[in-house]
Amino acid sequence: MSLLAQVIAWFADPTHWAGADGIPVRIFEHVEASVLSVVVAAAIALPIGLLVGHTGRGAFVVSSVANLGRALPSFALLLMLIPIAVNLSLDFSTWPILGAMVLLAIPPMITNAFTGIREVDRSLVEAARGMGMSGPQVLLGVELPLAMPVLLTGVRLAAVQVVATYTLGAVAGGGGLGRYIYDGFARQDPARMIAGAVLVALLSVATDGAFGVVGRASAPRGLRARGRDTGSIVGAVPNPGV
Q1: In the structure, what pLDDT confidence band is assigned to residue 219 with cuts at 50, 70 and 90?
Q2: CA distance 9 to 22
Q3: CB 63: neighbour CB atoms within 10 A?
Q4: pLDDT tens string 111-130
Q5: pTM, rounded to two decimals
């Protein structure tokens, strides 16, 4: 039997769709942990990126930290966090991978939040201030709406990276779709391993598509119109991956 036929047979096996190791359970575990990681990272990165972009202060520090975060491999972060979790009596199969995913998600979010605010037309900002708007009013009422497509691009990139990289959690005994890849390798079962990789790839594509729809919907009407003319959302700033 060819490898492709083995993978198809693996998916067709009803036992792989039920129980604690079933596909629905593993997908739920993967999505749950990914969402938690992205939400925590957003709570840290977005306020900092927006504030630095609005004031212009601390830009060099933020840029340096973001670049450092990109340079650190997620697997190395995971290995460094495991002994810390053990010393703190935390579940080393859960907290180290969540910590590593949060640190992975912060750089693209903080960079795009900062970039989006700084790219807002300064004449609009000065006009708002001339109308008597306070700093927070300018940020929330003028800069943030115009920067939203770029900001969501950072969240989108972070979410896709987290979904694709959370498979590392299986190395520390965590759940999610990475279990199929890790267990398939340990059992020398290539069909299970490839099936896990296919599921992760499909989930990553679905995540990217969902955020793409949200990003287009969040763009101001004028930017959406220009985006249709040019084939993309104006102002979206791509970010490198891990």
Answers
A1: low
A2: 15
A3: 16
A4: 999 999 988 888 888 888 88
A5: 0.84
